[in-house]
Design brief:
Layout (H helix, E strand, L loop, with lengths): L7 E5 L4 H10 L4 E8 L5 H15 L4 E5 L2 H5 L29 H16 L3 E3 L15 H14 L7 E3 L7 H11 L21 H13 L14
Parallel strand pairs: 1-2, 1-4, 2-3, 4-5
């Protein structure tokens, strides 16, 4: 019996650990094309290098990197405005941190859906994780439900494009364990908000990553300038 071909899928890959695992996960059910977005973040160079390393590891030829520097012009975030300091890690903050880039994921998804419509992809994957998202509002399940309604109404009737956030109700430790089972190269991912040869170990993103690896009982292969005592 002939096996039907996999549908094509666009995977948003930042270069971080979540999107690394997502890209490997998506290859099981879709013929993937990988999309990376530069938006003026401090780690733009590092993230882009990780994106290409991930694509090379998965042997994905169809890849696209785009620039939306206007988010840096708009500002309003520690990741786009150098006048706003990147805060030290506080995973119990209870408020949206200064590293939130206003409505960023909507911009990413609009680009991904546009490309999906052009190349005939049916799935658009994003690696949002609500429980470990630092409280970012554009990582909530209801946001993706609303985006899917917008996609349905704003693309051609036969596009069939669906935004998928398969990890949204998981925790980062689950992604570490999934990544380990899939054999992903965590050493080719970058989560830190600060630019440097080593991850800072002091920002929210580093703290979330370190906690996830610790909870999963897996060693994080990247180097940290500071690695808090567990």
């Amino acid at each position: 019996m002939t096996v039907p071909p996999k549908p094509k899928g666009v995977v948003l890959v930042s270069g971080g650990m979540d999107s690394l695992v997502l890209a490997a996960f998506a290859t099981r059910e879709s013929e993937v094309a990988l999309l990376h977005v530069n938006y003026g973040q401090p780690t733009e160079r590092k993230e882009l290098a990780c994106f290409h390393a991930i694509a090379d590891h998965l042997k994905v030829k169809e890849r696209l990197a785009v620039d939306i520097g206007y988010l840096k012009t708009i500002g309003g975030s520690a990741l786009t405005d150098p006048r706003i300091a990147i805060p030290e890690a506080d995973l119990d903050r209870g408020t949206v941190p200064a590293t939130y880039v206003p409505f960023r994921n909507a911009h990413f998804l609009c680009i991904a859906v546009s490309w999906a419509e052009v190349i005939g992809a049916k799935n658009v994957y994003i690696g949002a994780v609500t429980a470990d998202s630092s409280g970012y509002p554009d990582c909530r399940p209801e946001f993706y439900e609303a985006m899917n309604e917008a996609v349905r109404r704003g693309t051609k009737e036969d596009s069939g494009i669906v935004v998928r956030a398969p990890f949204v109700r998981l925790k980062k430790k689950d992604l570490v364990l999934m990544g380990k089972s899939l054999g992903v190269p965590f050493e080719h991912s970058w989560s830190c908000y600060r630019d440097g040869e080593k991850a800072c170990g002091r920002c929210d993103s580093c703290a979330l990553r370190l906690r996830a690896f610790a909870e999963a009982g897996v060693s994080d292969p990247i180097e940290y300038a500071v690695r808090p005592a567990s």
